[in-house]
Amino acid sequence: GENVEQHPSTLSVQEGDSAVIKCTYSDSASNYFPWYKQELGKRPQLIIDIRSNVGEKKDQRIAVTLNKTAKHFSLHITETQPEDSAVYFCAATDAGGTSYGKLTFGQGTILTVHP
Amino acid sequence: DVKVTQSSRYLVKRTGEKVFLECVQDMDHENMFWYRQDPGLGLRLIYFSYDVKMKEKGDIPEGYSVSREKKERFSLILESASTNQTSMYLCATSGTSGTSSYNEQFFGPGTRLTVL
């Protein structure tokens, strides 16, 4: 089955700096890579995703890059703000296969943005 | 808006008790999932279901069972609770209805279970 490794486990940055979280996956059949954000005491929510037919996707201050050859993908947050402080999870799946929407999640990264 | 609700936010049970956690969704989603969330371990899949009465084991099914008698409802059962099952339990759904992609998962608020 799929295995997703996520690093770092904690990340502390100053407001305005950039933050990068990296994930690697093991199953070459995986083709859909979402990122979820979980604020303290709240439920995880999808913030951005990427499919294997593109190498990069941006949405305002967040971007995700994918390197299929190396089997890794990354989340980039620019101009960080205190409200970006949260736990971030990456995930991977073989969308459209027999996965039934099942996602394999990474271990999570606690991002703290200091004012 | 997808609404995913869970029966309790906090639950305290004793070792050996049978525990039921219930998840209800109102978006007609085919797929439902149960995860446990522990610090440093991420979201680990316990069981999932892709249709009524259908269930599949996830990565950590030992000590758990599930039931899906109706499309909107997915129950997680701890037959005999143990202290190592103290955790945050999250339900999620996904499916073809609505404007979201099939693979986007919508989570419930979570149930923090403590087993004494």
Key features of this structure:
heterodimer; A: 115 residues; mainly beta; six-stranded mixed sheet; five-stranded antiparallel sheet; 53% strand; globular; B: 116 residues; seven-stranded mixed sheet; four-stranded antiparallel sheet
Q: State the largest interface.
A: A-B, 24 and 28 residues
As an assembly, this protein is heterodimer
Q: Specify the helix fraction band of chain A.
A: under 10%
Q: State the major sheet of chain B.
A: 7 strands, mixed
Net shape of chain B: globular
Structural class, judged by helices and strands of chain A? mainly beta
Strand residue content of chain B: over 45%
The parts of chain B where pLDDT drops under 50 for at least 5 residues are: none
Spans of at least 5 consecutive residues with low confidence of chain A: none
Average the pLDDT over all residues of chain B and give the rounded result.
Answer: 93
Number of helices of chain A: 0
What would you call the structural class of chain B? mainly beta
Please give the share of residues in helix of chain B. Answer: under 10%
- Spatial extent as radius of gyration of chain A: 14 Å
Average pLDDT for all residues of chain A: 94
How far the N terminus sits from the C terminus of chain B, by CA atoms, comes to 37 Å
Element-level helix/strand string of chain A = EEEEEEEEEEE
Shape annotation of chain A: globular
Query: How many β-strand stretches of chain A?
Result: 11
Distance between the termini of chain A: 41 Å
Count up the helices of chain B.
0
How would you describe this structure to a colleague?
The complex is a heterodimer of chains A (about 120) and B (about 120). Chain A is an all-beta fold and about 120 residues long. Chain A contains no helices and eleven strands. In chain A, the strands form two sheets. In chain A, strands 2, 4, 5, 9, 10 and 11 form a six-stranded mixed sheet that branches. Chain B is mainly β. Chain B has strands spanning about 5, 10-15, 20-25, 30-40, 40-50, 55, 65-70, 75-80, 85-95, 105, 110-115. The N and C termini of chain B lie far apart (about 35 Å). The model of chain B has no long low-confidence stretch (mean pLDDT about 95). The interface between A and B is medium-sized, with 24 and 28 residues.
